[in-house]
Every structure is written in structure tokens, then in C-alpha cells.
């Protein structure tokens, strides 16, 4: 089933998402865009029904352990609650650039050796940057956990590299931007869409950064960002797999609990002002087909207990996204992509409802041959109007809920997915058992609630539309080759 809960899915598909490496993807209460995430959980441990436990190390760093003894493997992650939304204008992309530079050495590990050492342990490793967080992981045989803890804690606390390494790697990042954004028409459209939707929110900036900012970025920009945000009280260690929580805690205290801490910069709120009318942009780019994206401003899901009205509405919007495109043959596909009168080759809906910034409800569509983006846009809006007018059936919601539960069960087959879920929930300030709580809350959503949000949140004043206008497919324009450097992404 297509998931709409996590920020990762939408960002990866629509807005060049979390930038991810090739090997496969506190003490303060962060407040951004008017939202305040819960502070890290105080010293525990607490445990969930699945056995996950959360601890606070001696220096305030958080540790989450999820035992899963089905295979002799473990995933070790470090999540830092900092992403592109914490950048300032002029240094867009620095969070992602720093992620690259974290592989370039420490006081004791030369550039490039980190990855070689993980591979020698029989593991694979990766890193990712999003608007809300930066993460690093290794998947290794469970008996090599201490080795990767030693490596990861060292680079977290002692990252350093010569200017020459930065000069090589910034060219790698620029090439990544060219290949993944500038040479991809839909990625260009997504970048322009987010820049049009938001005015005050830092979500308006691309994760990879604007090219002019990358051109002007210096080694000290990355070093300053590292010194500001990489402190134990702004991070969590997540370990999932064939491990014993008490032993993991002891190792974490040994390698992470003694790291020095420092105060974080004050996160000032950057509240997005209300939208006061429809916004529309067009992007011209060489492409075979058109494309249209509709973004509606909606309330965010900020808590999973003691719900307020925006949280209740966000849950109904989450259910609405699944009604529209949460399974094969869902409403949008049946109405717009099937039959003799179809107008689209594909359509979809996604609810971007969690994260540290504003929330969105997205529709996307690719016009069928002989059809226009305008027809797809009109068709998508007609389906929302149909739900607002006629509602949805209880049977339809039950089908969505059943598939959601099944999807959650399947995801737990992967220790990587378990660790990913725990880390992303920590960033959001959600509890350890967030997924279970969410499933319980989804069971209570009624057809009337779904109909109500369909009627409330899909007017012109909350809408930004981006349309791709296909241009002739010319030969690729020549681009300078990147300077030598080991690409991570």
C-alpha cells in the first residue's frame, strides 16, 4: 500500500526528497514555522509492545534500541535533528554538503577510510539529508556493532578534513544537482513549486541547495554548520536487530555518552503567513509529456495523544489520501486513468502532514496522449469535489484501514525499516510507539470526518498549481565534467 504518513515518501518522489548516498537511502525544543516538537524523552528506559526501549545517556544523548532476533544482523543509525530548514539564505545546501564531508575523515580516520572499514566488517553504509534531519547508518553483522559505534561516534565528534577535500566534494554535489534536478524536468518543477508555495518557511529552499549558493560555499561554511548543530543533545542513536538492549546501552555509554556537548543555536520561529489566493506557475523544459502538481495548504499532524482539532483533521486528510490513491484501482486511478474517457496516464495523492515545517496535501498527474494538464487538473479537483459532496462509504474506509495494518506488518520484516521509523519519529517528537498509536487513531476516523476535510481544505485560496510545459527534446547541452572526487550520492 502506498504510505502517506512519513515525510520521506513524498519528499523522495516529489521534491528530490532526502538526498541519499549510493550504498542503498535535546536539550532544546525545536520550534520552526510555529510548530514545537517535543523535547527528547527523559531518562528511561521505556519499552513498547515490540520491545523498543529508549534511554538517555550520561551527556543527554538519546538512545533507542529495537531488538529483533530473526537474523544475526543489526542496523546502527545516528539521526541529527538538523536539515536544510536550519540553513540560512546564502548557504542553502550546506546540511547536505556537510553530510558528504562527514565521510572525509576525522582525527584518526583518513578521508575515504570510513567506508572501507565498514565494508571490511561485512557491512554497508549510507547517509541521507532531508529538510528536517540528517541521518547516517550502517547495516552490519550484529557482532560488529561495537566496531561501527567506535567509527560513527568518532566522526560525529571529531569530523575534520583539509580544504582540498571540500573543493573536490563540492563539485560532486554540484554534479548531483545537475543530474538529479536540472536534468530532470519534474524535479525542476518540484523545486519551483516549493519555492512558490512558501515565502517565510525555509521549506522553500531545495535540500541540495541553489547552484549559486553551492558555487559560493566555502569549507568554513560546512565547518561552522557542523560546530553549530552536531552535538549529542541534538542527536539520537538508533539500533535495531539481533541485539540485547542492556549491552547496547553499555556500548553507547562507552562511545557516545562521554562526547562533549554544547548549546544549540536558538531556533527562531519562521511562521508561514496565510495564503491569500491561488498561485500558479509554469515550467518549460524538454520533456515527452506534461505534468501537473497541485499543492494545498492543510493542518499538520503534531501529536498522537491529547489531540487538538488540527490533529484530528490531519488524520482525516491522511485517510483521504489513501482513499484517493492508497491502493491499486483506488478512486483517482479509476476515475482518471482507466476506461475510454481517461485523461491521465497516472495520477496520485500524497499527504505531507508530519515534519518540522508546514503541511501539504499533494495531487500529481501525467496527461494521457491527446489530453492536457488542464484536463488532468480539472479531473483531480472534480474528484475532491465529489468526496466533499457525496462522502465516502464505511466499507471504503475499512478497506484502507485493513491495507494500512497489513503494510505496517510487512514493514516490520526489515530491521532497517524499523530503525528508520524510530529515528524519524524521534525527530518529529513522537513517542516510541507512534506507529501503533497512529493505527489506533486511524481506526476511529469516520466517513463524516473525511467528507468534512474534503469540503474545507481544497479551495483556491489554499492552492498552488505547477504545470510542466514540454519543450522539444534537443540534444543534451554540454556541461563541464566534475572535478575528480569520490561521489557519495
Task: Give an overview of the whole structure.
- The protein has 489 residues and is of the alpha+beta class.
- It folds into 2 domains: 16-255, Cytochrome Bc1 Complex, Chain A, domain 1 (2-Layer Sandwich), CATH 3.30.830.10; 279-471, Cytochrome Bc1 Complex, Chain A, domain 1, CATH 3.30.830.
- Helix content is 39%, strand content 18%.
- It is built from 16 helices and 15 strands.
- It has an 8-stranded mixed beta sheet, sandwiched between helices.
- Strand 4 and strand 5 form a beta hairpin.
- Helix 10 packs across helix 16 (447-456) and helix 12 crosses helix 16 (447-456).
Summary, kept brief:
Residues 1-21 form the signal peptide. The chain has 489 residues and is an alpha+beta fold.
Summarize the SSE layout with pairings:
Blueprint: H1 7-14, E1 19-20, E2 31-32, E3 35-36, E4 46-47, E5 53-56, E6 62-67, E7 73-80, H2 94-101, H3 113-120, E8 124-129, E9 134-141, H4 145-158, H5 163-182, H6 185-197, H7 211-216, H8 219-229, E10 235-241, H9 245-255, E11 279-286, E12 291-298, H10 309-325, H11 331-336, E13 344-352, E14 359-367, H12 373-390, H13 394-411, H14 415-428, H15 434-443, H16 447-456, E15 463-471
Parallel strand pairs: 6-10, 11-15
Antiparallel strand pairs: 1-8, 2-3, 4-5, 5-6, 7-9, 7-10, 8-9, 12-14, 12-15, 13-14
Region (Disordered): 24-50, 470-489
Pfam families: Peptidase_M16 (PF00675), Peptidase_M16_C (PF05193)
InterPro entries: Metalloenz_LuxS/M16, MPP/UQCRC_Complex, Pept_M16_N, Pept_M16_Zn_BS, Peptidase_M16_C
